[in-house]
Amino acid sequence: MSSTSIVSSPPKLVVANWKMHGSLLRNQQLIEAYLQGLRSITRAEVVVCVPYPYLAQMTDLLSGTSVAWGAQNVAKYEEGAYTGEVGAQMLKDFGATHVIIGHSERSTAYCESDENIAEKFMMAKRYGLTPILCVGETLLEREAGVMERVVGKQLETIIRLFGGEAFANTIVSYEPIWAIGTGLAASSEQAVAMHEFIRHTVATADKTAAGTVKILYGGSVNPQNAVQLLNQKEIDGALVGRCSLDAEQFIKICQAVPENSVI
Ligand code: PGA
Questions:
Q1: Residue 167 covered by a domain
Q2: Which atom belonging to ligand 1 lies closest to the Cα atom of 181?
Q3: Residues known to be catalytic
Q4: Is the distance from the beta carbon of residue 87 to the nearest atom of ligand 1 less than 6 Å?
Q5: Is the pTM of this model over 0.90?
Q6: Is 70 exceeded by the pLDDT of residue 7?
Q7: pLDDT at 111
Q8: Residue 216 lies in a domain
């Protein structure tokens, strides 16, 4: 005989990725609106990933609040003659706790290899930053049915170089490239299938790490599709681009985190 019960869901993580948007004035208005809207929300943990120059502003605006902040990239080097790069220690100096690694908008434009991304991932960890590793396939790869092979390879590079335990307490964001900025999000079935695959891949390398890694979904998340996506137990949260630039929409996405789940 099957029975259903209602359990309280764990909080979910909603990450704002501002990409290359913002100004001192706009950021201040946006953060004030976030903080106002988040007052009544207890189910969403929020991290805001801003362009480097605004990290200092985040320390002013967000210190002592429940909202954490981070960057959108980090150097794979500790320090040295690397013009234009920003090191993990520098992010720490400005209170960053998280950093996005391997976002497709960077890896495509700057031809970043999986190895390069793996080194950045470990550099972030070495300095106590939580890496948010972005993985995902192109539309062609999905149509060819090789999406798991592609995402598997992105994860395997880290596993091969640093072991499965490298994923302990980190974040992986499944970001199908065809869904980013297109208005066409993955269906919750597509996302859940890939999230299960990601957790299984990590578990095969290290079971304990697989129990602590958070797996987010990113790609055209909006207040409408967030309800369905964030209600899936396999989806630990969302990475939000465009809709994070509009406080009302961003707050609605945070509100979509369910209080309870039916199991
Ligand atoms: P989007 O961006 O929400 O604008 O599609 C998502 C992302 O950066 O991953």
A1: yes
A2: 5
A3: 103, 175
A4: no
A5: yes
A6: no
A7: 84
A8: yes
